[in-house]
Amino acid sequence: MAFFESEIVQEEARSLFSDYQNLMKLGGDYGKFDREGKKMFIGKMESLMERYKVFMKRFELSEDFQAKMTVEQLKTQLGQFGMTPDQMFEQMNLTLDRMKSQLDDS
């Protein structure tokens, strides 16, 4: 079975995309959240990033041609910004860490 034909892969892709869109929509009001709301938002973002890392690792480990092409496309796109996938995740984690430290300062 091709990588993208897997129901598990399709469901996780839909779930990740939907959760990401909902968080981005919600994140537009981040500045209006109270401290606990901000903590919850950061936690949800951290959870989403972990799920995304696992999802991407599936692509990397797959022998499927389309999966390998998807990884290469991501590397190419990120490379245009001088970044690797690992650096992208590192940047996301740094941003979330900064958001957490701002909570601690307030």
Description of the structure:
- The chain has 4 helices and no strands.
- It has helices at residues 7-27, 35-61, 65-79, 85-105.
- 79% of the residues lie in helices and 0% in strands.
- By secondary structure, it is an all-alpha fold.
- It is globular.
- The longest helix has 27 residues, at 35-61.
- It has one domain (9-105).
- The mean pLDDT is 92.
Q: Which tags fit this structure?
A:
single chain, 106 residues, mainly alpha
At a glance:
The protein is mainly alpha-helical and 106 residues long.
Helix/sheet category? mainly alpha
Share of helical residues: over 70%
| Helical segment count | 4
Structural Rg: 16 Å
> Strand-residue fraction?
under 5%
For the sheet with most strands, the description reads: none
Kindly give the count of domains: 1
What gross morphology would you assign?
globular
Number of strands: 0
Q: What's the order of the H and E elements?
A: HHHH
Please report the distance between the alpha carbons of the first and last residues: 52 Å
Mean pLDDT: 92
Low-confidence stretches: none
